Amino acid sequence: MRGIAGRAGRRFLSSLPALLGVLVFTFLLMRVLPGDPAIFFASGPNAGQAEIEDIRRRMGLDKPVPEQLLLYLRDVATGNLGRSMTTGQPVLNDLRGRLPASLELTFCALLIALVLAVPLGILAALRPGSLLDHGVRMLCTLGVCVPTFVSGLLLIYVLYYLLGIAPDPTGRIDIFASQPPTVTGFLLVDAALAGDWEAWWAAASQLVLPACTMALFVLAPLARMTRASMLAVLTSDFVRTGEALGLSRRRVILVYALRNALLPVITIMGIVFSTMLGANVLVEKVFSWPGVASYALDALLSSDYAPVQGFVLLMASIFVLVNLVVDLLYGLADPRVSIG
Amino acid sequence: MSRLLEISDLRVEFATRNGPVEALKGVSLSVGVGETLGIVGESGSGKSVTAFCVMRLLDRAGRIAGGHIRFRGEDITRAGRRVLAPLRGAAMSMIFQNPRAALNPIRPVGLQIADVLRAHESISAREARERAVALLEAVRIRDPVARLAAYPHELSGGMCQRVMIAMAIACEPSLLIADEPTTGLDVTTQKTVMDLLAETTARRGMAMLLITHDLGLAAQYCGRIAVMEQGRVVEEAPPARLFGTPGHAYTRRLVAASPRRDSTVASLVGAPEPQPMPLRPRQPLLEVRELGKRFGTAAAVDGVSFHLDAGESLGLVGESGSGKSTISRLVCRLLDPSEGSIRFDGEEIGAIPAGRFHRSPYRRAIQLVFQDHGESLNPRFSAFDSIADPLRRLLGLRDGAGLRARVEEAAERVGLPGDLLGRFPHQLSGGQKARVGIARAIAAGPRLLVLDEPTAALDVSVQAVVLHLLDRLRRESGLAYLFVSHDLNVVRMMCERTIVLQTGKLVEEGRSEVLFAAPRASYTAELLAAIPHFAPEEGDARARAAVAG
Amino acid sequence: MSATLRHVGWVLRGNPVTLLAGCGCGLMVLAALLGPWIAPYDPVASNVPLALQPPSAAHWFGTDQLGRDVFSRVLVAARLDLAIAASAVSLSFLIGATVGSFCGYAGGRLDAWVGRFVDVLMAFPLFVLAMAMVAALGNRVENIIYATAIINLPFYIRFSRAEVNIRRNLGWVEAARASGNSHVEVVLRFLLPNVLPAMAVQISLNLGWAILNAAGLSFLGLGVRPPTPEWGIMVAEGARFITTGKWWLVACPGAALMFAVLCFNLLGDGLRDILDPRMRT
């Protein structure tokens, strides 16, 4: 246990330089951007020269670059991410309000993907060459080829326009449905807490399409990975030992093969999760989902850079956190890491 | 009385890209209750396939095409899972090569033993645990209660094989199949594992099918030996008859090629003994002083000194972790020493950084022959290019008739037919690859050849030929050899002087015939005693002792 | 040489899918080269009376909101999309393979450091990084190439590093040094050629990925600007009409994207068989 904690600690420390790198990157982002940052923070396009100069001084833009970097780091450390020009709100507040929407979507998608991909991969590996195996392989090959924004739009076309099963693909909840009181920000959780099952259903049906779109995107790599690692484990020496010593088929597959086969799947979970964070941008745009990614994108397209900075930082922090969790999980699952 | 296991006319096919290939072409064998049968053969002889057939563990490509396997009189050739499951582990079980990989890496060994027990007997977890402790004790694992919670990676290779044995004997099967159970283990570990196996099977009245490539090992531990060649059993006899009056021509070759205490390089291949080498004036070539190499904080080599004369051959023996391979890399100047000096021809070469040694004039004087010939040739180079590379680099030869002549000459000296020069490594046999590797090393005309386990990955008959070739090369050209090996018999035959290493330190040094006849260090004596060998009177005594104990 | 051709022929006969994928890639290259000449209509000429026509004999893929022929636009867009992907992948391959091979060969502290950095970078939401980069460097096509190249870089470094690392202690690498090759020569003449087959597979898979990334960026409105025909931007323009049932505006450029990625992925698997000398008999 101490070995695992130590490993996780080491990994955490080693990801700190990356986090710092992202900080410097977002700082430079702001410096490199065309135009004068002070103008963005001025009251409006009609701000006078004096006001801009004043802002420049207040923001520390007249100081040398290294000092500005230090000031920026201090601001970030105290939670000051600047103010969004488009919403007029502090970026931190905006992000805090929209993060649950993005996380709810990502977690649901991950859940759907895992629930489908892992059993499919295992079944395919247990019967290599069978119809099911060919089907899964075809699904994997096709799955990685479909861009999320295309699959999302086609799902809308089929399920909303043609069949009329899905609700209008905009936003998290039908505007006419009653919004549950905000506790966690996760609509499904809040609605359940309030006992408002109508709202829960409204939120869930809104969530299904974007979550499925995103799940489709990571389904293929997850299923492929599970299948490959299960195949490798099934031909390994220790599975043969289990067979040779008469263990039941169920025990060989569940205890000997499966647990070993899931180890590599755990390791790529971090990468899968962060790809999903990236794909979030596309999915949120397609479904007008009010998450952090669409917020950052809108800001980016209207040259409002403080939200973009804040968004990149937020992503970086989430990814450090996710990797930490993956490391801990892996440490629990594989006793060998405590020495490595 | 019916035999415990009867295999009759067994034929097995493997589906390959070029159609089915017959791996077993009618194998008939039988094992009686409590008997130990050895199956000996070189790679591709089908000995492991036979064992896997009995356990019905053939992979998907393999198919039993004909014949019968009867176990306790019951035909199990085409038995389904329902028949096999209660037999496997309970009536017959198997242990494998590479014990660490054969154990589940993420499950404590205690639970793995309990898994086997509970698969066949309805006992509680507590009982299974107690039985597991008793079993670990039976395979002489110290502190068995603490070891229950250990994972395979926390145990040494020998310990893992003992755990494997504990699992295999857990339900008191009447037949134990051991497939190369000690390959890859050190010679002293091999001895303890094999003694344990022999004693356990004798005490419990279990029959054993021992599959091995080592004729000496089979002879020492088996009552009867079947010799297999290319999917057939060519001869089956007790060890004494096999060694004394081998009937089949292949057996005769195999017996001759297996190094024994009195073998010589010539006797291995049945060649006439060469003239003893003429005495030459002593001319120091290599002088190693207080050599040390640390990796991190661990010392792989620690204060080793030795010297080597021109034209002399010096053996370096030791078990894994003795530092012998590190020394060979240091002398070849592929690694930088942490301390000490290496003088070649009176010149200090230890101080030249390994990264720059390729430009030193001594680079062509010191060459290396590698262990695994499958990995020692660049897969994208033809044999010609492999041999030509040092000529291009070290002698600056350009492509053309001159280069071709030099490569062909080197190939001829190692007995490699010229028409094989255009082939790539995957198109060559193990022996041919070994020859290419040796030709590459001698092509640039070195004065010292470092041989790192040059025959460890080869079958004994190929090993015999390669050793004979190496011996002839040295006699012809006056090369000096630094011969690194774990096989003491090979070193005794090949080397005039021998150094014994243990955990990076020099244990003993002396003239080979003296050192092997009367070792001074106890470690050397232990190593020598552990070499499996066939001694009829001793073998009988051991079998009796084992049964009595 | 003829042996190589025979081998290629043998692999393709046993692997018709690879052959099809190869033909698909060839078709795309042709479209990229000849697109503007073989397109039936001018891809940017609008014809408002004919706007939003479903696919017909005259307009195979229908027309868009300005009455432009979707088929011509999809065809002409191949050049830009393939060019972006190819330049991004060759950039990241050249830099990544070199850095990765030398690190993997050198080992030691530098290698451990690079390895950890790459691991960390790979776990980062790379698409977000690419977005931010395009935003910072400016909304231009060449910046899409740089951004795609940079987010591909860690894969090449990691891959070549791992491939070289498992080989650095093999006999033939040590033999190469004993034969008088310097470290640099060992990497360039011995290790890189041996790593290439596996890399070729990676490159092929990566081309598909790069196309997806570039199209994703322009779907968001970064990099390529309308009215330039480009698959991602065409999907973005068509997205507005999906809820009114104008499926061809999304499906046709989307299918072109999928076709491109599919061909490159399938070709990658086939390439592995062709380039691996151990498969040659």
Provide the succession of SSEs of chain C. Answer: HHHHHHHHHH
Describe the largest sheet of chain A. Answer: none
Supply Rg of chain C: 22 Å
- Terminal CA distance of chain C reads 14 Å
* Percentage of residues in DSSP E strands of chain C: under 5%
Task: Name the CATH architecture of chain A.
Answer: Orthogonal Bundle
Count helical runs of chain C. 10
Which CATH class of chain A applies here?
Answer: Mainly Alpha
Total strands of chain C: the figure is 0
Report the CATH topology name of chain C: MetI-like fold
Cα radius of gyration of chain A in angstroms: 24 Å
Q: Treating each run of at least 4 consecutive H or I residues as one helix, how many helices of chain A?
A: 13
Distance between the termini of chain A: 13 Å
Number of self-contained structural domains of chain C: 1
* Overall number of strands of chain A: 0
Low-confidence stretches of chain A: none
| Structural class by SSE content of chain C | mainly alpha
Tell me what the structure shows:
The complex is a heterotrimer of chains A (340), B (549) and C (281). Chain A has helices spanning 2-32, 37-41, 49-59, 65-77, 91-126, 131-143, 148-162, 187-194, 197-234, 237-244, 249-286, 292-301, 305-333. With 340 residues, chain A is an all-alpha fold. Chain A has one domain (91-333): MetI-like (MetI-like fold, Orthogonal Bundle), CATH 1.10.3720.10. In chain A, helix 1 runs antiparallel to helix 13 (305-333) and helix 7 (148-162) crosses helix 11 (249-286). Chain B is an alpha/beta fold. Chain B has two domains: 3-256 and 538-548, P-loop containing nucleotide triphosphate hydrolases (Rossmann fold, 3-Layer(aba) Sandwich), CATH 3.40.50; 284-518, 3-Layer(aba) Sandwich (Rossmann fold), CATH 3.40.50. Chain B is built from 21 helices and 20 strands. In chain B, the strands form four sheets. Chain B has a six-stranded mixed sheet with strand order 6-7-8-3-9-10, with helices on both faces. In chain B, strands 16-17-18-13-19-20 form a six-stranded mixed sheet, sandwiched between helices. Chain B has a four-stranded antiparallel sheet with strand order 2-1-4-5, covered by helices on one side. The longest helix of chain B is centred in the middle third of the chain and has 18 residues, at 187-204. Chain C is mainly alpha-helical and 281 residues long. Chain C is built from ten helices and no strands. Chain C: The chain crosses the membrane at residues 16-39, 82-105, 117-137, 143-159, 207-227, 247-268. Chain C: Residues 78-268 form the ABC transmembrane type-1 domain. Chain C: Its main location: membrane. Chain C: Keywords: Cell membrane, Membrane, Peptide transport, Protein transport, Transmembrane, Transmembrane helix, Transport.
